[in-house]
Input
Amino acid sequence: MLLPIFAPVMANENKLQNIIAHCKEYGFIFQSSEIYDGLQAVYDYGQYGSELKKNIRDYWWKSMTQMNDNIVGIDAAIFMHPTVWKASGHVDNFSDPMIDNKDSNKRYRVDHLLEAHAETLPKEEGDALLAEMDTLLAADDFAGLKQLIEDNKIKCGISGTGNWTDVRQFNLMFSTEMGSVAGEADVVYLRPETAQGIFVNFLNVQKTGRMKIPFGIAQTGKAFRNEIVARGFIFRMREFEQMEMQFFVRPGTQKEWYEHWKETRMKWHLSLGISPDRYRFHDHVKLAHYADAACDIEYDFPMGFKEVEGVHSRTDFDLKNHQQYSGKKLTYFDTELNQHYIPYVIETSIGLDRTVMMILSEAYQEEDLSTAEKQDSRVVLKFPPMLAPIKLAVLPLLKKDGLPEIARELMNECRSEFRCFYEEKDTIGKRYRRMDAIGTPFCVTIDHQTKEDQTVTIRHRDSMQQERIPISSVKKLVLDKTRAF
Ligand code: GAP
Output
């Protein structure tokens, strides 16, 4: 038998486009409101995308809550009292420097404009430009940023001119009105991060859960940002999901906990089976208004290294401000120290959609399977089995001779434990390819021999190896191989 030849056949630049097309073709991700030509930077998850997303969310949730005695989860509302966002600093500070082109009226985020230009320059020049940009951003030097754009003769992609406005700040929160009487309704915001739902519930959870510091509160949920330049598929969206955990610690111990969570979160990423050289830490030069240390965990996406998660040492900024704005005490009594204090907070904040994109980028492979006798290839999503949308495909070889009945019986035995898929149409080869394309780690074929000796053929997605095993051992094998913990 000739062995298949495995060779990646795809340049990096095409990879993102190929992934987007694949996600649409196989029911992972669709443009939102597609029949109305879509809504920019908003996406819907289809039948397999929603399963993948749920599996990632569950894995994160379990690693935080189930695997740590001192971390509990909550589910806070998206709408919050408007003063929350005053206290958190988002009303005054949650903005990006923007610049408009006067001829096209197109608005750009200044850092994105400069980053795009830096990519067109030789590496050393590009790096120097980015370093200068970082310094100006850190100093909030808007005149300097405009000068940098003009000095580099950066033009608007639409009008082709360099006729720019001054650089201004633009708040990214969406607002709406709550209340039934027009004109008298209160302005409320769609939360731009889930974290504030945790801060305002800090004492509720600490008291009712009798939590002792250090302890954490975890949450997953939607967040909304009116991103001006929203691009890169599900990398930067206007409606997205976050998975955040605030870890409350004794003041003065935040540095060691910050290091602890940096390391713990990197281990979580590596537990997805992704190689360490696909990640790097990026320490923040310009710290957010609430932080005394912060870094990004960056992953090597098809468009280069970009942030997938942030680890932030948020000091006591949020609790202190909520105490001040609400007039309610938010202190913790530390029985060991016999002292009241406002805890410090280390936050781990990861975008769920960005993690979906990371997992898709890592899993997507175009393989050349040609042999001397025939040309062949496949697209396969090599998901970690625990994250795969479908764990097991059950495929009767024929639609007759009692084979579908045996297959249905196996489906019924397994479906309460993990997601199965039944398919009897097309040749077995075509069915395998369809399962490869949605990342199903195991396919089981029921044939005439099954009737004689109660064995089936199990096919492994990544190696494409097939083996004969008793039908009675299928459920346990799949459970063992797809279990997260
Ligand atoms: N509570 C802190 C916080 O929200 P952040 O760095 O602004 O920090 C955390 O966001 C994570 O949320 C990011 O690392 C990213 O994965 C995700 N995220 C932020 N903005 C996003 C957007 N517009 N679209 C998709 N994901 C986003």
